[in-house]
Structures are given as structure tokens and as C-alpha cells.
Amino acid sequence: MMQSVRWFHVATCLLIGWFFLAPMSSEAGNPTLYIDGNPVGLTQGGPGCGNDIGFINGSNSVLNSCYSINGTNVTTDSTRSQTARIGNWYVGDLSSTNAARVLINDTSTGRDDMKLTGVTFTHALASSTTTNTASSTSPCSSCNQGQITLVNVFNNAPNGTGTGTDYTWAMSAGGNYDPPSTENVINDRFKLTGTGCFETSCSTSPTATSFTTSLGTPLDTGTFVTSTSLNITAGISRSNSSATVKAGCNTGNGRCAPTLRYQYVITTQGKDTLKLTDSVDGCGGQCDPSGPTNKLPGCTDTVARDGSTIPGLKTVCDQQVAGYETANTTALLAEGGVIAETCFGTCLVIEIEGTPANQAAGTTFRFTATGQGVGNFARTLDQQGNAVKAFSNIVPDSNPNVGDPNDRFFTIPVYPPGGSQGTWQTDQIKCTSSFNNGSATWIVGTAGNNSAEKISLTVLTIAEGDILTCSWHVH
């Protein structure tokens, strides 16, 4: 079995008798955290805090703080349920040195940060289940879904800056779903939406209607269609670049003190664990489009008064969120995980299965793919002899006639050496529609005296919203 990865993180919430909401210092940030509407106990400077560079638990000039999530323990494959239970979720620490916590950076020089880190989620009531076919319904009928909300008031805004300064923001989300040894990650999903309230007075309630300003394009993984292999961690990272979310921001007295909200929906099938590390991160704040001042950074790369070029707020934040995205992906691959293929809308999924797995592992198969929405691709089989390619948002096709312009054709023109025949061959191609109502049709091309060798696949029809998974078995 491949070793699974440990590094996705989030935060959680529940009102348990011995949990408490820590009082918020006037010299620190004021985050509130919820899971499915239940408030989470936070302790400023608690376990797991103290090692985060730049988050110093408050001072007179810099409002940087770390808040630990109460009651969490380290999550491993054998201890998924031996940690804090918050509602219907077990919430844990990523490791003994990376505990569940919230990090807030609220400075008087225009730069803000908001991060959830070191956290794991496992559904407390889930039964073990797995499938190789993604569901067109999200969440799937056997999936569990939860919503986590983080809210913070960034009220340490510079004074006397006037109403002409902009407020920018950028987000990143990255990490992985870690299945137990008997499951895979098919049908898992993660979505982060950021919004802000830029009024004189804003509620911190997770359901407040005053969060009307978007903090950028939501970060949505789509439905996981890989890895079909058991016990292999699958991750995906997303980020959006910084943009002006509120031009000329003034929440009163010439200051910009917004209330920002992160809402993210997690979907898991079976007992998969969501692991987040530096994965829900935001960077931005108040900047001056005309250039840096003694109180605010410039919005883009600018030339300072002494003639030297310095990075502006947007540049710094773009580098930060891109760095987290790259680091998450690098860590995933280094520890044996895979970057998940995901599905949006109407999808065609080609799954390659090789046997025997020990011979198939590491073999690369190159496909020719023609037709609307598809193209040539190559996939290298993992240690269990599997690989997947997904095509999202393809145009539905209801024409059953061969030769229709929207037909999709797949073949392996040249097989690599190996397998039971000296050169790999395809002996089965089987398709499964998530609708399972006959709306998807296909033809398998054959060769050889007894037509045992399968040489191509033509998808004739596929309905809107369907996920058609075609397993290509090689030996």
C-alpha cells in the first residue's frame, strides 16, 4: 500500500460542556469559528501556538495572534475517532507539532492575514464505503457534508487615510483527503467561499446577510474522480490572485475595518479524513493605488520615494498564496499521494486498470482522444496499477449515430512493452453511467481472431450532468 499523506487542515466547532469560548483580548484579533452553526472553543496562545512566524499573540502595535482549537488530539489512521467530537465530526490535530489553530494578522500598516491550519475532519457517523464511479449528485447519497465558517473583524486599520484607498484580498486552499486502507477518495469535494462586510457596523454571525462583497472566485475542487486506488491520499490545491474587492474603502472616520468571512463546504464519502495544512489562507488588506505612503503599501509594484522599486501588497499576497499552493502539492507528491482528477458538470472519465499490479505500476499509457472537449493524454499507473483522466464540462450529446461531430473517440495507438503478452494489451473496456438510465451509449472496437482484444472506445451519447466512467483494463 502506498503511504498516505498527512497535511490538509481546517478548524471545527461544537458546543461541548467543557469547551469554552475564550475572551478576546483588545490587543489581539477576534476570530469566531463555527461548524454547522455551532461555535468552537478557541484559546488565544493555547497548545500549538508559539511557533508561527509573524503571529506573536498581540502587542500594542501589531495585532497578530494564534488561537488553538480546544480539545483536539493528533489524528492518525488508527486514532481517527480519538479526538474532539464536534457535532457529527471528529476534529483533530495534524501532528504533535502542527496543532489545530486559527492565525490572525491584523496590522496597522494595511496588511491582513486569516488562516486555518493543522486541522483534520472525519465524519463521526459514517459507515465504511467505497466506489470507483463518481456520483452526478453532490453530495452523493452515501456522502456526508459539513460547513465550517470563520469570521474575523479586521479593526486595526490605519487612521486618517481618507476614503480613496482600496482593500484587496487573495485566497488559497490546498490539502488532501486521506482514506482508510479499505476506501478511496471518489466523491470527496472541498469548496471555499470568501465574503466581506464593508459597512460601518457588521455582524459576526455565521449566517449574517451583510456579507455582500465577494473576496474573489470561490475555490472549488469539484467532485473527486481519483484516486480509485485504496488508501492513496489525493489532494488538490487552488488559489486566486489578489484583486480589489472594495475600492475606496471607508467603514467610518476615513478608516477601512471590514469583517471577513470564510465559508467552506467539505464533502466526504465513508470514513475519509480531510486534512488541511496552510490550506485555508487569505492575504490582503488596505493599499493605496497611487503608491506607498508612510501608512499604506502600494497596491502593485511601485517606486518608492528614494527611487527603489518595492513590492506592493498585491504582489506580496500573490507570492504568499502561490507559495502555499506549491508547497502543498510538493508535499503531497513527496509522500506518495496523487493530485486528484476532479469533475465539473458533464464529465467523461477514463480509468486505466493494469494487472498484475506489480508489473503495471510505473507503466505509462498514451491515449489518442478526439472529439468535442477531449484531447490526447498520457497516464502513468500508480503502485496499485491504476490511473485516471477526467474531462469536465463537455457538451452533452443525444445523437446516437456514429460520426456525429460530438462523438468522442479513444484509443491507445502504441502499447508499451510488458504485461502477460510481452506487450500490454486491452482485454476489457466497460463504461458506467452515474445516471444508469440508458442515456449514455458507447461502442467498443475489437481486433483479433476472437475479438478478445479491445482497441478503441467511441462514446456516442451522454446526457447533461452525467459522469460516464469507462474502465480500460490492460494486462
Protein architecture, described:
- By secondary structure, the chain is mostly beta strands.
- Helices cover 5% and strands 40% of the residues.
- The strands form six sheets. Strands 3, 4, 5, 6, 7, 8, 9, 11, 16, 18, 19 and 22 form a twelve-stranded mixed beta sheet that branches. Strands 1, 2, 10, 12, 13, 14 and 17 form a seven-stranded antiparallel beta sheet that branches. A five-stranded antiparallel beta sheet has the order 26-25-28-31-30, with no helix packed on it.
- It starts with 31 loop residues before the first strand and ends with a strand.
- It has two domains: 32-339, no CATH class; 344-474, no CATH class.
- 52% of the residues are buried.
- The protein has two helices and 32 strands.
Query: What's the main sheet like?
Result: 12 strands, mixed
Tell me the number of helical segments per DSSP (H or I, 4 or more residues long). Answer: 2
Shape: elongated
User: Approximately how much helix is present in the residues?
Assistant: under 10%
